[in-house]
Write a structure and sequence with these properties.
Subcellular location: Cell outer membrane
Radius of gyration: 27 Å
Strand content: over 45%
Organism: Chryseobacterium shigense
GO molecular function: siderophore uptake transmembrane transporter activity
Distance between the termini: 58 Å
Structural class: mainly beta
CATH class: Mainly Beta
CATH superfamily: TonB-dependent receptor, beta-barrel domain
Number of domains: 1
Low-confidence stretches: 5-36
Pfam family, one: TonB_dep_Rec_b-barrel
Mean pLDDT: 91
Family: Belongs to the TonB-dependent receptor family.
């Protein structure tokens, strides 16, 4: 197998040698026409802004027009057109799984990639359970561009981001003018307005404002308005002779639906499965949410009775204020400081199907079963319908506040540039899991809750509620109140050894400290009148109450380095190589896994504190007046630990991935151009607690991912389409059940009605392709022909009108 991989990489390498030789004979290849080169000046993952051809990194820039044409319905969907990045955006506007170049997603979130806004993280950890960084990130028209860095140089420029950085860079108001964009869903309810405006105030002051507000159902049928909220941004910039100072802020208050795995019918074999919708549930348009399932009552983190409106879904609130300051000290010395404080909180409410089956398999398996009716009625349930035992993920995001500061001082000599900095951060993770168990029918049209009655006529359930808590999973109601602090000195030096050769070396050390406590290692069962009606119903006889508090007090260290070289043959051709080491600290994902969290000398704890990534990459960059091609060969080794709530499973695995990544653009003539990206990855589990999976491919890792975007522009008309897809992958590490490959086609057409008025119509997944991104089951064998999986939404159309002023 390894020989075949090496053979494929050699073929890819030969292709790039051919491209290099072709570039040498191209008539337009002249080093004297640099202004005609297609290249971007990038700032993410570099100590000094520079043209991308002069960097030894893999970086892509997304502009607002490209993002709008790609028709993303969520923030994570923006990333799917970036080569090398796998964005599983089937969870809605948050809770997405994102990773880079075969680096694993063993539980959820994006452990090895950070999302930044203006060069500072949104969250210090990308995989906080039910508080992922994309939940607190929204794209709007106030974003000037997005830069996506893949690879090892990120290890020295940010903590907990060894695989990459995605940086949202916002407007400053320096460019006068603005825009108003009104977007509407054509076959689904969505109304959104984006506004941005910037202007000079005089005396070198500049102000920028912007944001969005939206309402609607989203791309799936939830039975109510599930998307409701918006974001406001403000920037004030002052420029002076030797520098500038900027103060900015953001207020986000947004409610969106969270989509969990859904019931899907499957037949055939593990290697050749046939997936289809159940008769009562369309997997492309359905949602587990229902207008009949709106309220939840449970015992909160402090023992209080907590009333929740399930329609709040993923409710994200962020109040942010930031500062940027830079100053030219003279003699080649410069000072730069970035700092930001964010007060983050909210709630995560989403139904999860713990088990799905027939009436006999779900309802009649309840102890004491006599009969069953739809909740609130005396109507007997349909004996031929499907039913679910549903766990409501009701998680309070009490406090996810954070503070980030990065102070940098740099010095430039003739052939040497030095940057030294000190990064300081604190991240609170204070959450309460208040989960209950319900019974409901499987339906994509306002599913009904189900009550079970014993033979004597007494209800076992209360309006569909089976348990206060989740006894089937050993009780997972829990609280944690922890704080993660990091101080990280870092330094980077760049040396121009000769005219066209530059070397860069960076190092970073994270001094991490974790403190606090968590509770819920046990769930004590008590009798409590939760609904306070004076009667103890059956579920109230055994109410799960959080018990068993564990202190947390330990330290960790992460040493990261990155050494790169870039040889620029001329303004059209460059080769680069890089060797890196980095890591990502384990945050709340290793709590409740049974370690001694107060003993720094405990080897078991020491083995899971930090997840390590070592990378080697190298490639070739080709530039011309009408095309570019970036090619990167990559190799990564990952050592990680994790703990998954829904399976109660602890993992300590070693992974290896290698492959090649292409990123290209070709402007054929004044009317037609094409962008494309392709990533080939060969990934393997090298070691694990479960030795039976060693040698297997990590779950949900395809061999190929790709995106293609042909575009035609004729006068005022622009039209084209995106094809985004991947080849097949396994649902779980056991490598049995296959998720088929898919290709989503997203066409668009834009017409400039007036000089400053543009109409855009686009579609997402126009052919209703079935795109499964994850599944709970690892095999068809032993199931009842139904599995639980998340899919990307089906066909949606939207239109927007943009007015520039």
């Amino acid at each position: 197998m390894e020989a075949n991989v090496i053979k494929k990489l050699l073929i890819f390498g030969t292709m790039n040698i051919a491209a290099f030789m072709f570039s040498q004979s191209t008539p337009t290849d002249s080093t004297s026409v640099k202004d005609k080169m297609i290249d971007e000046v990038v700032i993410t993952g570099n100590s000094n802004p520079k043209a991308s051809i002069k960097t030894s990194t893999s970086i892509s820039t997304l502009k607002p027009a490209d993002i709008i044409n790609a028709a993303p319905r969520t923030t994570a969907e923006i990333f799917r057109t970036i080569p090398g990045i796998r964005a599983e955006s089937s969870g809605g506007e948050g809770n997405s799984n994102i990773t880079v170049r075969g680096v694993p997603v063993s539980a959820g979130g994006s452990r090895y990639l950070l999302i930044q806004e203006d060069g500072l993280p949104v969250m210090q950890f990308g995989d906080i359970a039910f508080g992922t960084q994309d939940q607190f990130t929204r794209f709007d028209s106030f974003v000037s561009r997005i830069e996506a860095l893949r690879g090892g140089s990120a290890s020295v420029f940010a903590s907990n981001s060894p695989a990459g950085i995605i940086n949202f860079i916002t407007k400053t108001g320096e460019k006068q003018g603005g825009s108003i964009t009104q977007q509407v869903g054509l076959n689904y309810k969505n109304f959104r307005t984006d506004v941005d405006y910037g202007t000079p105030l005089g005396n070198n002051y500049f102000i920028g404002v912007g944001g969005f507000y939206r309402g609607g159902d989203g791309p799936r049928k939830t039975g109510y308005i599930s998307n409701n909220g918006g974001q406001f941004r403000l920037s004030l910039l002052k420029k002076f002779e030797k520098g500038s100072i900027r103060i900015y802020g953001k207020y986000l208050d947004d409610r969106t639906a969270a989509y969990m795995p859904m019931p899907i019918a499957v037949s055939g074999s593990d290697s050749n499965p046939d997936y289809s919708s159940l008769s009562s549930y369309n997997i492309l348009t359905g949602a587990l949410q229902s207008s009949n399932f709106r309220n939840d009552l449970t015992i909160g983190g402090n023992g209080q009775i907590l009333k929740s409106d399930i329609r709040d879904g993923m409710h994200s609130v962020s109040k942010t204020v930031g500062l940027e300051f830079n100053y030219d000290l003279g003699s080649g010395w410069k000072l730069e400081e970035k700092a930001r404080y964010a007060a983050n909180d909210g709630q995560f409410l989403a139904p999860f199907p713990a088990s799905v089956g027939s009436k006999a398999e779900i309802l009649e398996s309840i102890a004491g079963y006599g009969s069953a009716v739809y909740a609130g009625t005396n109507t007997a349930v349909d004996s031929n319908a499907k039913y679910m035992k549903t766990v409501l993920f009701n998680t309070q995001l009490n406090n996810l506040n954070n503070f980030f500061s990065d102070l940098n001082i740099s010095k430039k000599w003739d052939k040497v540039k030095l940057n030294a900095g000190l990064y300081n951060s604190s991240q609170n993770i204070n959450l309460s899991w208040n989960w209950n168990t319900y019974l409901m029918e499987v339906s994509d049209s306002n599913a009904r809750l189900v009550d079970v009655i014993n033979p004597t006529g007494i209800k076992i359930t209360d309006n569909g509620l089976l348990h206060y808590g989740v006894p089937d999973w050993g009780g997972v109601n829990r609280n944690y109140d922890t704080k993660y602090s990091v101080i990280a000195p870092h330094a980077q030096v760049e040396i121009n050894v000769v005219k066209n050769l530059s070397l860069d070396l960076g190092a970073r050390y994270d001094f991490g400290k974790v403190s606090g406590s968590f509770a819920g290692t046990q769930n004590t069962m008590r009798t409590i009148d939760v609904n306070q009606n004076g009667t103890i119903e059956t579920p109230e006889q055994s109410v799960a109450v959080v018990d068993g508090t564990v202190p947390v007090n330990y330290r960790y260290g992460i040493f990261g380095y990155s050494f790169g070289a870039n040889y620029t043959i001329n303004s059209h051709n460059a080769f680069f190589a890089r060797v890196s080491q980095g890591g990502s600290a384990s945050a709340d994902r290793i709590l409740f896994a049974g370690y001694n969290y107060t003993n720094n000398d405990d080897p078991a704890l020491d083995a899971v504190k930090v997840n390590k990534v070592n990378q080697i990459e190298g490639g070739y960059k080709l530039r011309s007046a009408n095309y570019f091609l970036n090619t990167t060969l990559f190799y990564a080794k990952t050592i990680e630990a994790n703990y998954e709530a829904t399976t109660q499973r602890r993992t300590e695995n070693k992974y290896q991935s290698m492959g090649v990544e292409f990123d290209g653009f070709y402007k054929i003539n004044q009317y037609f151009d094409i962008k494309a990206g392709l990533t080939y990855t060969h990934a393997e589990i090298k070691d694990a607690i479960d030795q039976t999976i060693v040698g297997n491919t990590p779950r949900r890792t395809p061999k190929f991912m790709y995106s293609i975007n042909p575009n035609v522009t004729i006068d005022k008309l622009s039209l084209g389409f995106f094809v985004v897809g991947s080849t097949k992958a396994y649902t779980q590490d056991v490598n049995k059940l296959v998720m088929p490959g898919y290709a989503l086609v997203n066409p668009y057409i834009a017409y400039r009605l007036l000089k400053n008025l543009t109409l855009n119509v686009n579609a997402n997944n126009i052919f209703n392709a079935l795109a499964i991104t994850e599944a709970e089951e690892g095999s068809i064998v032993g199931t009842n022909g139904i599995i639980r999986a998340r899919t990307l939404p089906g066909r949606t159309f939207s239109a927007s009108v943009k007015f520039d002023f």
